[in-house]
Design goal:
Shape: elongated
CATH architecture of the largest domain: Orthogonal Bundle
CATH class of the largest domain: Mainly Alpha
CATH topology of the largest domain: MetI-like fold
Number of strands: 4
Radius of gyration: 26 Å
Structural class: alpha+beta
Strand order of the largest sheet: 1-2-3-4
Distance between the termini: 31 Å
Number of helices: 15
CATH superfamily of the largest domain: MetI-like
Largest sheet: 4 strands, antiparallel
């Protein structure tokens, strides 16, 4: 290994030079990669949104498909090997009638083998309502065989497929809600920090009032005002707006504090003296200087939006059937007896927990990476 005049290894010198000339975004990427939980969280979030985008392909059946003969059928376990060979399968079902209540009591019947496989032909669909197809990621080789990886609900619908389709609504509510909150936070926080005076006082008092109101009662009050005769699409957008009107306050204060610091910087004073319009100054000079912090704040805000939609829908004040979301699916678990007898109905809650944790880990990593010069 060759050494420099000072005796330091040359590869260390080259690495030091590379760091010195690296851009802000490259430094952020290097620091983000060192946060292992953030990388894992990012991968999980990417998988979630990929599954939501191609829900028709990943789900074995449509979320409205039901088989009344398999009401509350328990989950099936995938077995990979049979007779010493790789041959995935699940066991079938059998049931008995409770002599007192006449309720079906399900059992896994190990004498019935249901072969399964990847990229199986099954129920036809239209991807995004445009592209026809009938290939599903996983499914039984005979489409008529029962296949319930996470069990069935009270109508004999596949919970696994419904969770996949629900991700489209629950995850996009978070994205759309955060997009609206981002606009309001930058607009109101920017005006507050840049103009100051009476404008700053009014916006900050409004922010303090919204922060002081308990979140859940405010959600309930606003959601209760949604007319019952509205279409599912109208309710979807109203719930998104409700979550956005409450969720912009944190970002607004971050933007205000950044604008208060930046407006004293020399490049902002130079732009002001040069007659740069206010809109151009905000979006071309001020916001890009702390864009990384905005990205981190937005990522940390999405879990709150998802939990808000889930809570409202669970309480029956948010989205309603026939729209399917994780909160709508969890409405069936409001009775303790249902949870005790059919615990697999809680699988949508597991989907919520995993994606919220992943988004929080991702946001935490982005927040650390937003300041790559700070040692940790």
């Amino acid at each position: 290994m060759s050494k420099s005049v000072t005796g330091a290894p040359r590869y260390a010198e080259s690495e030091h030079v590379e760091i010195e000339i690296a851009s802000q975004w490259r430094l952020m990427w290097w620091k983000f990669k060192r946060h292992r939980m953030a990388v894992v969280g990012g991968i999980i979030v990417l998988i979630y949104y990929l599954v939501a985008l191609f829900a028709e392909f990943f789900a074995p059946v449509h979320f409205t498909t039901y088989k009344e003969e398999y009401v509350y059928a328990p989950p099936q376990t995938i077995h990979l090997f049979r007779n010493g060979k790789f041959d995935p399968y699940v066991f079938g079902y059998r049931f008995e009638r409770d002599p007192a209540s006449f309720k079906k009591i399900w059992y896994i019947d190990e004498s019935v083998i249901i072969p399964i496989g990847l990229f199986q032909r099954g129920e036809p669909y239209k991807l995004w309502g445009i592209i026809p197809g009938n290939i599903h990621l996983i499914g039984p080789r005979n489409p008529e065989d029962p296949f319930y990886l996470m069990g069935a609900d009270k109508s004999g619908r596949d919970i696994f497929s419904r969770i996949i389709y629900s991700s489209r609504v629950s995850l996009t509510v978070g994205l759309v809600g955060v997009a609206i909150s981002l606009f309001l936070g930058i607009l109101l926080g920017g005006l507050s920090g840049l103009l100051g005076g009476a404008v700053d006082n009014i916006i900050q008092r409004l922010t303090e009032i919204l922060i002081s109101i308990p979140t859940l009662p405010l959600w309930l009050a606003l959601a209760a005002a949604v007319p019952l005769d509205w279409s599912p699409l109208q309710v979807y957008f109203m719930i998104t707006i409700i979550l956005s009107l409450i969720g912009w306050t944190g970002l607004g204060r971050v933007v205000r504090s950044k604008f208060l610091a930046l407006r004293e910087e020399e490049f902002i004073l130079a732009a002001t003296l040069d007659g740069v319009p206010l809109g151009r100054m905000i979006f071309r000079h001020m916001i890009p200087s702390f864009l990384s912090h905005i990205i981190a704040s937005v990522t940390l805000s999405i879990p709150g939006m998802i939990l808000g939609e889930t809570a409202l829908s669970y309480l029956g004040l948010g989205l309603r059937p026939p729209v399917v979301s994780w909160g709508v699916m969890l409405q069936e678990t409001q009775k303790v007896a249902v949870i005790a007898n059919y615990p697999w109905l809680l699988f949508p809650a597991l989907a919520v927990i995993v994606v919220v944790l992943a988004l929080n880990f991702l946001g935490d990593g982005l927040r650390d990476a937003a300041d790559p010069y700070q040692a940790k």
